[in-house]
């Protein structure tokens, strides 16, 4: 605060004094309350494995679970973990899991990233969700995903934003968006969203990362990518995937071939050849939607856990939401919006009207006339 005041940065000083400081004081009071009555001695006779792991994790940025849990066990059960979050993309999950198993077994070049993938498919089918699920499964937390929107890198000069501006240029001290993010989170999933929109010069940077597993930023620091998973998403050829599904819900070979033709026309061969897998995501079917409704409701229940409340949809309500929220073109996103507008709003009204108490379940059902949803509290 004093530093900001001395520099006459009054906005920053006010933000710290009236925003950050009271918040930190509040958090400190809460922590003091939590530890009151516990063993407060400064010296313990022994240090536990968890304490060592926690301290090393703070120093290195390596997730705690990576230091303590069996890497082998986690990798072998990776497909089961991913299937809990990603619905209807069995082939994609299988290909990603196999590539990571090869890397963890030491068969792949250890200096390169753990895995590099290109996810192709229509919007809302689980491309980003699979990236988030990988970050949580392998690196403990969804927050260990670095997301870079490649539509911001359409101009030739924008390459410098990835690795940092050259000396003498504006932004030199800030570092690059990609290099700084990975330097701070060396164990992470790096998601390049809508990669087809990037300027061709950007791919020179990506080629170096895919080939060498490291890159030098504008300040001469080498950033290591060998503990990262690189994922690029693209909508190229998605129109063929939407129309090219057979009766069993699989992608027709001719549709897959048309997608690959478009892909080769857009990206250079040396880029495509350096990827571990190019994965085609299928449009979601009506049968997939029930599982996605369950995932979305579980997410709402996690947010309501602090209030000791939960939401439950009857079978009829689940079918009603799935029927009205399903859109084969836009995938799960319209379903999520429908659930927010109709289910979450009903629950919120019930909560604000004091219609529920701690420990209650909010039951969502279909109205007797079959037109709309209703909410009630249940002990």
Automatic annotation (TrEMBL):
<dbReference type="GO" id="GO:0034605">
    <property type="term" value="P:cellular response to heat"/>
</dbReference>
<keyword id="KW-0067">ATP-binding</keyword>
<protein>
    <submittedName>
        <fullName>AAA family ATPase</fullName>
    </submittedName>
</protein>
<feature type="domain" description="Clp ATPase C-terminal">
    <location>
        <begin position="284"/>
        <end position="375"/>
    </location>
</feature>
<dbReference type="InterPro" id="IPR001270">
    <property type="entry name" value="ClpA/B"/>
</dbReference>
<feature type="domain" description="AAA+ ATPase">
    <location>
        <begin position="113"/>
        <end position="266"/>
    </location>
</feature>
<dbReference type="InterPro" id="IPR050130">
    <property type="entry name" value="ClpA_ClpB"/>
</dbReference>
<dbReference type="InterPro" id="IPR003959">
    <property type="entry name" value="ATPase_AAA_core"/>
</dbReference>
<dbReference type="Pfam" id="PF10431">
    <property type="entry name" value="ClpB_D2-small"/>
</dbReference>
<keyword id="KW-0547">Nucleotide-binding</keyword>
<keyword id="KW-0143">Chaperone</keyword>
<dbReference type="InterPro" id="IPR019489">
    <property type="entry name" value="Clp_ATPase_C"/>
</dbReference>
<dbReference type="GO" id="GO:0005737">
    <property type="term" value="C:cytoplasm"/>
</dbReference>
<dbReference type="GO" id="GO:0005524">
    <property type="term" value="F:ATP binding"/>
</dbReference>
<dbReference type="GO" id="GO:0016887">
    <property type="term" value="F:ATP hydrolysis activity"/>
</dbReference>
<dbReference type="Pfam" id="PF07724">
    <property type="entry name" value="AAA_2"/>
</dbReference>
<dbReference type="InterPro" id="IPR027417">
    <property type="entry name" value="P-loop_NTPase"/>
</dbReference>
<dbReference type="InterPro" id="IPR003593">
    <property type="entry name" value="AAA+_ATPase"/>
</dbReference>
<dbReference type="InterPro" id="IPR028299">
    <property type="entry name" value="ClpA/B_CS2"/>
</dbReference>
């Amino acid at each position: 605060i004093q530093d900001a005041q001395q520099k006459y940065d009054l906005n920053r000083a006010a933000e710290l004094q009236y925003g950050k400081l009271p918040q930190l004081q509040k958090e400190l009071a809460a922590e003091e309350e939590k530890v009151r009555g516990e063993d407060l001695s400064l010296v313990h006779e022994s240090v536990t494995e968890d304490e060592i792991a926690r301290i090393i994790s703070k120093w290195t940025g390596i997730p705690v679970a990576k230091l303590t849990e069996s890497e082998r066990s986690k990798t072998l059960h990776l497909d089961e973990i991913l299937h809990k979050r990603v619905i209807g993309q069995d082939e994609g999950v299988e290909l990603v899991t196999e590539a990571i198993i090869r890397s963890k077994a030491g068969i792949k070049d250890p200096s390169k990233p753990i895995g590099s993938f290109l996810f192709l498919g229509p919007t809302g089918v689980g491309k980003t969700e699979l990236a988030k699920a990988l970050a949580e499964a392998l690196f403990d937390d969804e927050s260990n995903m670095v997301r870079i929107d490649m539509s911001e890198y359409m101009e030739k000069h924008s390459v410098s934003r990835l690795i940092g501006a050259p000396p003498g240029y504006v932004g030199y001290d800030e570092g690059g968006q990609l290099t700084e993010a990975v330097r701070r989170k060396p164990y992470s999933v790096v998601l390049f969203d809508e990669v087809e929109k990037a300027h061709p010069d950007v791919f020179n940077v990506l080629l170096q990362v895919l080939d060498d597993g490291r890159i030098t930023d504008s300040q001469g620091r080498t950033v290591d990518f060998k503990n990262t998973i690189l994922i690029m998403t693209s909508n190229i050829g998605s129109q063929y995937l939407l129309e090219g599904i057979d009766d069993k819900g699989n992608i027709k070979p001719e549709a897959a071939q048309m997608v690959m033709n478009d892909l080769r026309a857009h990206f250079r061969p040396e880029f495509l050849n350096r990827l571990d897998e190019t994965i085609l995501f299928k449009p979601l079917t009506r049968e997939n939607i029930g599982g996605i409704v369950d995932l979305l409701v579980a997410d709402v229940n996690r947010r309501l856990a602090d209030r000791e409340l939960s939401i439950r949809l009857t079978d009829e309500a689940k079918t009603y939401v799935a029927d009205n929220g399903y859109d084969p073109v836009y995938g799960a996103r319209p379903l999520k919006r429908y659930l927010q507008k109709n289910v979450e709003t009903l629950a919120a009204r019930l909560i604000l009207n004091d219609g529920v108490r701690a420990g209650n379940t909010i039951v969502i059902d279909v109205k007797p006339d079959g037109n709309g949803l209703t909410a009630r509290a249940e002990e």
